[in-house]
Design goal:
single chain, alpha+beta, 4 helices, 8 strands, about 30% helix, globular
Length: about 170
């Protein structure tokens, strides 16, 4: 468990199991910004997905809290079949009302510090092709296209890689 980290009046900490509904709502608000026709309803029970992610002993879900409200989140763990020194950032979201406030940078920094403390050397993620804002955010922090996973025809995601030690 990561200890609480206070950054510029914000607290970055592990998400609590009781916060799964709040996390799912933030996830939905953030995702809605890059789906011009609305977030596809595939029947996923997102609160259940988040409860599972929060409970995983092999993963971590961090959140950023500002003035008592959960306004950012990051979920990561070693992906199946990957080397132990690799971590995947599965979800990274900031409440749209808090974009361009430094919150994403603070949350990303907390993730990198956690990865370094865990001895990770590489981080990977996939980002929706229509989410230009996120792609630019990651590029400014040193994420690059993953040469091991080039874009596939018709895929809706870009795969990025980050050198944790050099970040």
């Amino acid at each position: 468990m990561i200890s609480d980290r206070v950054t510029g009046g914000r607290v970055i900490r592990s998400v609590l199991a009781a916060e799964a509904e709040t996390v799912a709502a933030l996830h939905a608000r953030a995702r809605a910004t890059y789906y011009p026709d609305g977030v596809p309803d595939d029947g996923t029970d997102w609160p259940a997905v988040w409860r599972s992610a929060i409970a995983r002993p092999d993963g971590q879900v961090l959140c950023a809290v500002e003035r008592g409200s959960l306004v950012g989140l990051a979920s990561f763990r070693t992906p199946e079949g990957a080397p132990a020194d690799t971590v995947k950032l599965f979800q990274f979201h900031v409440d749209p009302d808090h974009w361009r406030t430094g919150l994403g940078t603070a949350l990303h920094t907390a993730c990198v510090e956690h990865w370094r403390a865990d001895g990770r050397s590489t981080a990977v993620l996939d980002v929706h092709v229509g989410n230009r804002r996120a792609q630019e955010f990651y590029a400014r922090r040193g994420w690059v296209p993953d040469p091991l996973h080039p874009p596939a025809e018709g895929d809706h995601h870009l795969f990025l890689r980050y050198a944790v030690a050099g970040g």
